[in-house]
Specification:
By secondary structure, the protein is α/β, with parallel strands linked by helices. It contains 12 helices and 11 strands. Helices cover 35% and strands 22% of the residues. The radius of gyration is 18 Å and the shape is globular. It comes from Owenweeksia hongkongensis (strain DSM 17368 / CIP 108786 / JCM 12287 / NRRL B-23963 / UST20020801).
């Protein structure tokens, strides 16, 4: 039987940043295309969430990918536009639709943006927590000094999906759902380069042609930082769901701590960190490496026809 998966995403492929020059992440697009092409996956629904780009951009992209590359077969719903407000917890169409789906079947949730919609689901529909087989997220690190270094020019990225809605992770832990993390530690071991984009562009698959074209600006930003290519963060989450044997993981415990913010040069600026190790905390599966020959496996999965 195929795995039943719900995609929750802050899709931003090709979008310009709202608050600073440059372009947004493209890796959500790779993850979604990979799931669309996988023979052992049924995508039950797809929801949008704020994150890499505002919801006003993320949701139309979800609808476009569904229409253009999945023949309109995936129900698509508008989700959270901002982080959870614990003083005023409100549902949204995505949360309500996910709840209805969970009433009928157990689901794996791939939450590759802020976990806002998952947190809201658990707050509004706590009785459905046992219907969630697993939530797969892109977040976490081992220590507060485990920087998310981009290239060799001293730029650190934040743990964006966690940073933008810390409360949603607290809610998941409190409700006891199974959590798998595919953090920077594993994605930093996987690279896509111009050669890979050229291969995708030359295929006869419309999704590949689109993602290759829209990745050019993103690739250039990484090259400008001294990197050799870019890390396709979210595709490690989708690949784990499709073929967990290709992903090396271990059982750790997660907790939240406050430390100086490693993304700014200000000793008085602090932030929350999601730290994972063997000490006390909430049990999680922590993905940290890929099997030998992984890049070939990844490219082969992407080259499949939608």
């Amino acid at each position: 039987m195929n795995k039943q998966v719900w995609i929750d995403t802050d899709l931003s492929v090709g979008m310009e940043r709202e608050n600073r020059p440059g372009y947004c992440d493209v890796d959500d697009g790779y993850a979604i295309l990979q799931l669309m092409k996988a023979e052992n996956i049924d995508i039950v629904g797809m929801s949008s969430v704020f994150g890499n780009t505002p919801l006003k951009n993320a949701h139309p992209l979800c609808e476009m990918m569904n229409t253009e590359f999945a023949k309109g077969k995936i129900p698509t719903y508008r989700g959270g536009a901002e982080k959870i407000d614990l003083a005023n917890v409100q549902s949204n169409p995505a949360v309500d639709a996910l709840a209805e789906a969970l009433k009928n079947q157990k689901l794996i949730i791939m939450a590759i943006g802020p976990a806002t919609n998952v947190g809201l689901l658990l707050l509004k529909y706590p009785e459905l927590k046992d219907q969630i087989e697993e939530v797969v997220l892109v977040a976490g690190r081992r220590t507060a000094q485990s920087n998310f270094a981009i290239g060799n020019k001293g730029r650190n990225a934040g743990d964006a999906n966690f940073d933008k809605d810390v409360a949603s992770f607290e809610v998941m832990f409190q409700h006891g759902v199974a959590v798998t993390l595919a953090p920077f530690e594993i994605s930093n071991k996987v690279w896509l380069t111009q050669k890979d984009l050229d291969m995708l562009a030359k295929s006869d698959d419309a999704g590949n042609q689109w993602i290759a074209k829209e990745s050019q600006h993103w690739l250039q930003q990484w090259l400008d930082q001294g990197a050799e290519g870019f890390n396709p963060f979210d595709v490690l989450a989708s690949h784990y769901i499709i073929s967990p044997e290709d992903i090396i993981s271990e059982e750790l415990n997660a907790r939240m701590e406050i430390h100086p913010n490693d993304t700014v040069d200000d000793p008085d600026h602090f932030k929350h960190y999601l730290l994972c190790d063997k000490s006390s905390g909430y049990p999680v599966k922590y993905c940290y490496d890929v099997v030998e020959g992984y890049h070939e496996k990844l490219m082969r999965s992407l080259m499949l026809k939608s």
